[in-house]
Specification:
single chain; globular
């Protein structure tokens, strides 16, 4: 399933990868428009994942995974062939997001349905942390292909990735879930589970920060390189890929810390640390790359370190009868705030002078810090309303 997910993720950040070098100048996009384009995939995901993930409580998640993988590949092909401006780009990127909605959380449900009973947090964390490896591959392949053959080729090549998950689905043994009770989109039992909702809302704060920086990291490091000249091997391609690859060990380590010191305590510490590092990067935006690079690499560890612990905490806190619905809520909140993060950073950049201005990046990283600080508030709320957790 982790290998299949790498394929599903190959198209995932093609748009952020090529924004600064290709789409913004060719389509004459503002920061807000670029953020809207990048966030449209998360918006498509958000609109459809409640239904698709909730359906996994009623039918084998593998069937949804097959359909999602096909649509993921189709949307990527359509973007590469037909996108010609902001709104066609938004449409096709949203289709990619809808396809991925049938791949990520249904994939997690397909995995957990086939695991032996007991503590599955390490398996869930491996699956969620492999997300970051897939994003790193997406950054790498998209930028290398676009630099060699143009940005349309980046979509055409990465469109073959979701076929890997399609093949994985064909070899999975069938597992039919126990018949679910109640209405299909009845999320009332999920809302009543305050322990699970704490992790869901915390995941939303995490996604706001994560997708905000993933959308704009290439543009940020392009700004740094242009300001100080191409003085090292640390190009935007290298920095964006390394930033993503560090997320996998960081997420696994974060979950191990959660197991050792307590989930809420570890997640809260990580989120506070991430906010501090974001502010330090913003304050140093006009400084040397040799100061910014270590800070950015530390940020690459703090941003994803809470991901596995949040998702495994959600799956363990969920009522088994409503696990699919709980995953649907988890993903809906997360990707809603992902879209908001991408767009919000673009608005912050525009309002403070544009991506070529150091003060704009100070504003952008301040927004990221503010967003992640909402996570500890959500966890505190869940403890206050559910003391037994």
């Amino acid at each position: 399933m982790c290998v299949g997910q790498l394929g599903s993720l190959l198209p995932h950040v093609v748009v952020p990868s090529i924004l600064a070098a290709f789409l913004i100048p060719e389509w004459q996009l503002t920061g807000a428009q670029a953020g809207l384009l990048a966030g449209s995939g998360a918006a498509g995901y958000m609109l459809t994942v409640p239904l698709l993930a909730a359906l996994t409580d009623r039918i084998d998640a593998r069937k949804i995974l097959i359909a999602g993988s096909v649509l993921n590949a189709l949307g990527t092909l359509l973007f590469g062939v037909f996108a010609s401006g902001l709104w066609t780009g938004v449409l096709f990127n949203a289709i990619v997001g809808i396809g991925f909605a049938g791949a990520y959380m249904p994939g997690l449900k397909a995995l957990t349905d086939r695991l032996a009973p007991g503590d599955s947090s390490r398996a869930v964390t491996l699956y969620t942390s492999s997300f970051s490896l897939g994003v790193g591959l997406s950054f790498l392949v998209a930028q290398l292909v676009a630099a060699s053959w143009g940005w349309r080729a980046a979509f055409l090549v990465t469109a073959f990735g979701p076929i890997i998950m399609f093949v994985v689905c064909l070899v999975l043994p069938p597992v039919e879930p126990k018949p679910a009770q109640g209405r299909l989109l009845d999320f009332a039992p999920v809302f009543r589970n305050k322990t699970a909702m704490g992790f869901v809302l915390g995941y939303g704060a995490h996604c706001f920060e994560l997708y905000g920086i993933r959308t704009w990291i290439v543009a940020f490091w392009t700004f740094v390189v242009l300001r100080y000249g191409q003085t090292s091997i640390f190009t935007p391609i290298v920095v964006s890929v390394v930033f993503s690859l560090l997320a996998m060990p960081a997420s696994i380590l974060g979950n191990e810390l959660a197991l050792k010191f307590g989930r809420h305590r570890a997640i809260t510490a990580v989120m506070f640390s991430s906010a501090i590092v974001a502010l330090m990067i913003g304050l140093s935006a006009d400084k040397s790359p040799w100061l910014l690079l270590p800070l950015l690499l530390i940020y690459a560890l703090t941003v994803p370190a809470d991901s596995g612990a949040l998702t495994s905490g959600m799956t363990m806190a969920a009522d088994p009868r409503y696990r699919g619905a709980t995953m649907a809520m988890h993903s809906t909140v997360g990707f809603s705030l992902s879209a908001l993060g991408a767009w919000g950073i673009g608005i912050a950049l525009d309002s403070a002078g544009g991506p070529s201005n150091p003060s704009a990046w100070m504003a952008a990283f301040s927004v990221l810090a503010l967003g992640i600080m909402l996570g500890p508030l959500a966890l505190y709320w869940s403890r206050a309303t559910a003391p037994q957790a």
